[in-house]
Amino acid sequence: MRPRDAYAEPYRIKVIEPIRMTTKEERLQKIEEAGYNVFSLRSEDVYVDLLTDSGTPAMSDAQWAALMRGDEAYAGSKSFYRFQDVVRKITGYEYVIPTHQGRGAEHVIMTTLVKKGDVVLGNMHFDTTLGHILLRGAEPVNLLRQEGYAVESNEPFKGNIDLEALDRELGAHGPEKVPFVLMTVTCNSNGGQPVSMANIKAASEIAHKHGVPLFFDCARFAENCWFIKNREPGYEKRSLLEIAQEMFSYGDGCIMSAKKDALVNMGGFTAMRDHEVYSKAIEWVIPFEGYVTYGGLAGRDLEAMAAGLSEVLDDDYLEDRIGQVAYLADLLLERGVPVITPAGGHGVYVDARAVLPHIPQSQFPAQALTVELYVEGGVRGVELGACAFARTDEATGETIYPELELVRLAIPRRVYTDRHMLCVARAFEGILERRSSIRGLRITYEAPVLRHFTAKFERV
Ligand SMILES: *Cc1c(COP(=O)(O)O)cnc(C)c1O
Predict the structure, then answer these.
(1) 443-456: per-residue pLDDT in tens?
(2) What is the mean pLDDT of residues 296-322?
(3) Is residue 111 lining ligand 1, measured as CB closer than 6 Å?
(4) Which of 28, 51, 2, 19 shows the shortest CA–CA distance to 384?
(5) What does the angle CA 292 – CA 294 – CA 298 come to, to the nearest 5 degrees?
(6) Is residue 184 within 6 Å of ligand 1 at its C-beta?
(7) Catalytic residue among 105, 138, 207, 219
(8) Distance from the CA of 41 to the CA of which of 158, 430, 452, 454 falls in 20 to 30 A?
């Protein structure tokens, strides 16, 4: 990767959206009103919004222009065929079904292929994927290599699956119990870490040897391809499109949240080689998503996705995008803020316990840091720690805490400049100066499931 100051953004700005800087006093009041939970803030009160990279990209002039071409016919719209052509070109998969977003594609594929008692193997399933597997009464199994869990590392491909474990699990359960192997590229749940082509190829060979198909959860396939090109020997000279085509050639189908690498604000799809799977899948698409040529989307959405997929496999764009994530990670490391290394493709993950060592895990250090980041700089990140992941042991009633207390700073695509990243780094400087006086939090309200979205807190 070239140094950040060796180049500039590979685009210029045609439309802007004003954002408002608030005062610290205002932010203290807003966060108190929000029950110390950033999900309850209004976006107009946030200066740099790093809550998620999902559905938050800025579309290009080509995408906005494509919206006008949307054919809103109920069946057989021109927009569907243009979209299908782009997906076929990248993936090589014959059958393409649009869905309203990634979880719509998960729903279709899980109901089609997964039955009660099945085991779904993968490198590491994303939350909604995990939820859909559980809803089918099946068991999700993560087979990420041990290296993928390390906080500090030089591993180039921390998203790789453990091939020996995959072979062993497939041997133990067989094709009757394993409907498919799911490779998530990049691996969202451990920080957007990439999977190497060698690992994908070997996983595909192992799955196929056992008579089990391989699917991709390919929300960030373009970012994964960029990492392969820049980190895996033998791929430096290949085009990103060729790398994507080779990657998908090892699989039998995919599910995608288009809100990531299709550079749109809403959409998704599933695609596959097998006609029988397709025929069964559309039985679930029509009642839940809509007719097969629109799948819960407007014709113009299909046009924006087609345009986004056509422009995302671009070296300059991806170097700038992934470079910006690495830049923010470096700014924080230089200031003594520990983050997961190497930085992944879509966000920086801060080790909250290292920043606030005096706050015990029972007082939510990552949530406290998320709150302070908003108070200090108007920056919205998200807690991935005890609030999101702690659970109660049913036998003993004891709380089981997650290993890590992280604050994720997910960077929207083509939205913020490097000066915004400097603002984020400055907010951390302010926090470090007064860190010993920062207090923990206690929960005053929580929902029985997925409490982190709606929990309310007070300061200890
Ligand atoms: C976002 C995401 C999903 C779910 O997609 P939605 O569009 O949010 O429904 C599934 N898998 C991965 C890897 C994701 O990042």
Answers:
(1) 999 988 788 999 99
(2) 98
(3) no
(4) 51
(5) 170
(6) yes
(7) 219
(8) 430
